[in-house]
């Protein structure tokens, strides 16, 4: 099912056509579905490669940012991240930029794969600290590196308020309390920390685990430069023990934590609003995040 009005179709036949045109030495390798997110469709290519195709023109802009910056970020990070091995260009079969990466083995972070939740929170904090410490290397918050999650909350208020209105019929959501948490955070001082590199979407599906520990971070489609508050918002997707260990490891103060919680609300409510009819599974993940925010709303 199409998720976006301007979505571009990409199936196995498209992948094979692109390979024949641009990397014929790979064209005979086995191709199999490897998942589809809200922004990209993935196919495994042989045993060691992954083809990643953006769903829409706006997503293709992130492809170029990944190809440019991931090789420069990788040496600074304590875990594996995607390694581009081919910069795909638009062709007759597919009109957008696309990529081939080395395959990374691992299981999605979750109850079955994470054996020590506190240790996992510490591992993630180490990765985030390292990423936020990487020199900007001339990058600035403009163009493709200016994603909204690196800015301030107030700039998103009109949009997020509309998402709250669109979710009025969602049952059992605690909408009034969530809206209060959002509006309360709008009264906080705007962030003033230095700009840093941001992954932008550290939800469990983008965290790969081996032997119970964080092994790799994938999907840098939200790579940007900006304030770090929203980087912490997916913590409400993780168990409380991981969340608390992460916060303690990074020494996040109350104001930063409340802004991060507001970002968790914003991303969750916008996800429910946009995807509840077209991608119920992802909307369900967003609902789970919002319920976790409500359950932990007394934490400061």
UniProtKB/TrEMBL annotation:
The lineage of its organism: Bacteria, Bacillati, Actinomycetota, Actinomycetes, Kitasatosporales. This is Aminoglycoside phosphotransferase family protein. The keyword Transferase applies. Residues 31-263 form the Aminoglycoside phosphotransferase domain. PANTHER family: AMINOGLYCOSIDE PHOSPHOTRANSFERASE-RELATED-RELATED, BIFUNCTIONAL AAC_APH. GO terms for molecular function: transferase activity. Pfam families: APH. Keywords: Transferase.
């Amino acid at each position: 099912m199409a998720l976006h009005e301007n979505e571009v179709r990409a199936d196995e036949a498209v992948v094979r056509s692109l390979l024949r045109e641009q990397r014929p030495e790979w064209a005979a390798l086995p191709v199999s579905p490897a998942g589809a997110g809200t922004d990209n469709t993935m196919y495994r290519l042989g045993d060691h490669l992954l083809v990643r195709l953006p769903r829409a023109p706006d997503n293709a802009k992130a492809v170029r940012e990944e190809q440019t910056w991931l090789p420069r970020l990788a040496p600074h990070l304590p875990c594996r991240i995607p390694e581009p091995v081919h910069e795909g260009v638009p062709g007759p079969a597919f009109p957008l930029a696309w990529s081939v990466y080395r395959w990374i083995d691992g299981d999605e972070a979750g109850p079955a794969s994470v054996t020590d939740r506190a240790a996992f929170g510490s591992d993630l904090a180490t990765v985030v600290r390292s990423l936020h410490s990487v020199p900007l290397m001339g990058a600035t918050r403009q163009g493709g590196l200016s994603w909204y999650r690196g800015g301030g909350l107030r700039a998103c208020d009109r949009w997020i308020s509309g998402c709250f209105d669109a979710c009025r019929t969602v049952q059992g959501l605690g909408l009034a309390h969530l809206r209060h948490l959002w509006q309360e955070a709008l009264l906080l001082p705007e962030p003033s920390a230095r700009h840093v590199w941001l992954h932008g979407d550290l939800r469990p599906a983008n965290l790969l685990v081996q032997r119970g520990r964080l092994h790799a971070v994938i999907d840098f489609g939200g790579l940007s430069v900006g304030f770090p508050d929203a980087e912490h918002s997916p913590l409400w997707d993780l168990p409380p023990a991981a969340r608390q260990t992460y916060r303690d490891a990074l020494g996040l103060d109350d104001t930063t934590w409340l802004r991060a919680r507001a970002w968790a609300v914003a991303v969750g409510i916008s996800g429910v609003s946009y995807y509840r009819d077209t991608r119920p599974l992802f909307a369900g993940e967003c609902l789970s995040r919002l319920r976790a925010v409500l359950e932990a709303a007394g934490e400061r």
